[in-house]
Design a protein that fits this description.
The chain has 721 residues and is an alpha+beta fold. Helix 2 (25-48) packs antiparallel against helix 3. The structure holds 2-(butylsulfanyl)adenosine (IVH).
Length: 721
């Protein structure tokens, strides 16, 4: 290396450490050249030679720095810039991005009562009276896909899709092509994550589909699908050619607050150069919200882009902070949805599908019909009572009209959910239509299909011997919120389940696949859709998941009545698999200390508790779970504990009246500080907070010698925390 080259090398190395906003033009140019070379080499190593030289994270860091420098010096962007290149993403598809602040979803309100209850819940939580002023910001709910944009020192350094809320896809190169997304900001906080919705206008959507038809490309069912398909292009050049737009309405990590109110924060984002929705308004109380909703609904058709409701957010950001979050949604916001669209069509057949818990679900096969821009040919019919025109208590639904094959039925879609049947037109019923007879045996395995008293659903009694149940359990096991194994989706599960040489019949089999295949990849690599490369990729993806958080494992088991939120509550209560397993093994339904402990967890009712115990004590089921767990390293579930919190890990019981905050807020606060809040006092209780009127619980605490303090003592204990 010559002296001057050495000097240049040193200058570039220095450049690499310099914050992007302090780079001189010369340093930026030199660094872009180095980055193009390094990223190019990494791409070749990864894609052409299949021998990655650097980690995904290091690769992402290079790409991000490149994007940030390009954002600040657009004129220096090289012809061979790596930002828009095909195949530039690590692993198959996009790189992964862990969100600094989780991207949550919203609870829905479907009518005025739901909205009034939302307002009531908030008032109760905050201890506000019914007539105390409480302002909300209302914004249209844009029907697109959410995107998080990270700016550092005013430069866009990363764009990520929501993904599962914790980890999304790195779509920085694509976001840089969207005109509504500023690449640099003046006067922004040092760290600013702006969140909002990517969408496509009706006119642009129609023009895109027309172009696609001419060129023989893929056409899209609706603007949202078109927006999603256009953003998630590995070739950012394609995204550039698609007319995407962006509205900002929220934020993630911030180095300093944007404002003290939601409305102010939106205005600040607008001031920084983001598009914000003009139908955003600040309103008082429920009446104001409902008036605004009607106004937005009346303008909906003329907007030129899809919205599917109005989002209400508590305006005061301090109150938002006090209200906090449930497991997947904020307490301070709700989406008031527009009524679903309806269409009439013919019911051509009723099929029965068997789910992972054995439930027999009737599915309507429909003459295809367009509902709200999407062609619908299947809909759920819920259960046998629904078809017969009865509700769960035996009362009439649809005034008792039953549904028969051959009928004209009314179909609707509400949001993303599976289409449903709302009504039937008896005047058009064919003369020979017969009442539907629900099967009494499982159509998949022939076992009896039984209905327990009080259960609306008929279930196959075949358990693990029913192939449909086993396959559905496996599909659930590999799904998104569960093990989420790349390259092992529903299609592959069906293939492996039917395979004789290398079958996957239960979850544990996934983790013995590589060992059973042997090192030569021979058995797998010879079948449809699997080459040596994809086989070893699949094995890698499986290996990656051997280490799994407890909450994901619990959810993946597909236990009835245990959803994602329930799994996460159970995981943080028991902490480890052995603790959970021991408790479930010892527990008896309806009695004893393990039962009391389980149903004492907030969010766990008797139904979920019984289902957990039954599953964990059912011999065959348990043996299958044990085989699985033997293959795994289950990670301990750690709650996010505020540093130095005096109550972290403690079990606290609140009793009596609290005067300075509602019980709900006290509980949420304690949990945020890492404490467990229990409903009843036991030997495991560390602390009782007793307000006026505390009765038997306070007495029990005294008897057990458990520390008891009053509300002021509690506030002093947690202090400014
Ligand atoms: S706020 C923590 N505001 O709706 C709150 N979301 O159903 C995060 N959406 O994932 C969301 N318009 O993709 C918010 N004005 C708006 C919105 C909005 C559309 C989407 C967003 C979110 C989904 C939840």
């Amino acid at each position: 290396m010559s002296d001057s080259e050495q000097e240049k090398g040193a200058a570039i190395k220095q450049g690499a450490g310099i914050a992007v906003d302090r780079l001189t033009t010369a340093e930026a140019k030199a660094e872009l050249s180095r980055l193009a070379a390094e990223i190019g080499a990494a791409n070749r190593a990864y894609h052409a030679e299949d021998a990655p030289e650097i980690s995904d994270a290091a690769y992402d860091a290079l790409k991000q720095r490149n994007a940030a420098i390009e954002a600040r010096f657009p004129e220096l962007k090289r012809a061979d810039s790596p930002s828009g290149q095909v195949g530039a993403a690590p692993s198959d598809g996009f790189g992964k991005v862990r969100h600094a602040v989780r991207m949550l979803s919203l609870e829905n309100a479907f009518d005025e009562t739901d909205v009034a209850e939302f307002d009531q819940r908030i008032r109760r939580f905050l201890g506000l009276s019914d007539d105390a002023p409480l302002a909300y910001t209302a914004e249209p709910k844009i029907d697109g896909l959410s995107l998080s944009l990270r700016y550092e020192n005013g430069a866009l350094v990363q764009a990520a899709t929501r993904g599962d809320g914790e980890v999304g896809e790195n779509v920085t190169a694509n976001a840089l092509t969207i005109a509504d997304i500023p690449q640099t900001l003046a006067g922004a906080p040092e760290i600013l994550e702006v969140r909002g919705e990517v969408y496509m206008s009706h006119a642009d959507f129609a023009a895109l589909n027309a172009r696609q038809e001419v060129t023989g490309g893929k056409t899209f069912a609706n603007p949202r699908n078109a927006a999603a398909g256009s953003l998630r292009q590995l070739d950012a050049g394609i995204t550039r050619a698609r007319p995407l737009r962006f509205f900002a309405y929220a934020w993630g990590e911030l180095s300093e607050p944007l404002s003290t109110t939601q409305h102010g924060a939106i205005a600040r984002l607008a001031g920084l150069g983001f598009q914000t929705n003009p139908l955003t308004d600040r309103l008082d109380g429920v009446e104001g919200l409902l008036r605004h909703y009607k106004d937005v609904e009346a303008r909906r058709a003329a907007l030129g882009y899809d919205i599917d409701g109005v989002v209400y957010k508590v305006d005061d950001l301090r109150l938002q902070e006090r209200l906090g979050f449930r497991s997947t949604t904020p307490r301070w916001a709700i989406a008031h949805k527009f009524p679903a669209e309806l269409a009439w069509t013919v019911l051509e057949a009723i099929d029965i599908q068997v789910g992972r818990t054995g439930a027999l679900s009737p599915v309507a096969r429909l003459r295809p019909v367009t509902v709200g821009g999407v062609v619908v040919s299947n809909a759920t019919l819920h259960n046998e009572d629904y078809i017969a025109g009865r509700d769960s208590t035996g009362g009439p639904i649809r005034e008792g009209r039953d549904i028969r094959v051959g009928d004209w039925v009314q179909v609707y879609r509400a949001g993303d959910v599976i289409p449903k049947i709302k009504d039937v037109d008896l005047s058009r019923r064919p003369a020979d239509a017969e009442p539907y007879v629900f099967p009494g045996v499982c159509p998949e395995c022939g076992s009896a299909a039984l209905r327990e008293p009080g259960d609306a659903v008929r279930r196959c009694a075949g358990g693990l011997i029913c192939p449909a149940q086993a396959v559905e359990k496996l599909k659930h096991f590999v799904s998104r919120g569960a093990f989420d194994i790349e390259g092992l989706g529903a299609k592959q599960i069906e293939m492996f389940f039917a395979d004789d040489l290398l079958p996957i019949r239960e979850p544990a089999d996934i983790f013995t696949l590589a060992a059973r295949d042997g090192a030569n990849l021979a058995k797998l690599a010879n079948r449809d859709g699997f080459g040596e490369k994809s086989t070893s990729k699949l094995f890698e993806a499986i290996e990656e998941r051997r280490e799994i958080p407890l909450a994901r494992l619990l959810f993946a088991l597909g236990i009835r009545h245990l959803g994602e939120a329930g799994a996460s509550i159970i995981a943080s209560h028991y902490g480890t698999w052995p603790a959970f397993e021991a408790a479930m093994t010892a527990a008896r339904i309806g009695e004893g200390p393990e039962w009391d402990d389980l149903v004492g967890i907030d969010g766990v009712g008797a139904v979920m508790a019984s289902s957990l115990i039954t599953t964990m004590q059912q011999e065959a089921e348990r043996a299958s779970i044990d085989r699985l767990v033997a293959q795994l390293e289950v990670q301990e579930s750690r709650r996010v504990v505020a540093e130095g919190s005096p109550v972290a890990g403690k079990t606290i019981v609140f009793t009596g009246t609290l005067e300075k905050m509602s019980r709900a807020e006290a509980k949420a606060r304690a949990e945020a500080l890492g404490a467990k809040v229990a409903g009843s006092v036991s030997a495991k209780t560390d602390l009782v907070v007793a307000g006026p009127g505390a009765g038997s619980k306070a007495k029990k605490a005294t008897d057990l010698g458990i520390e008891t303090i009053d509300e002021d003592g509690w506030l002093a204990l947690i202090g400014g925390a």
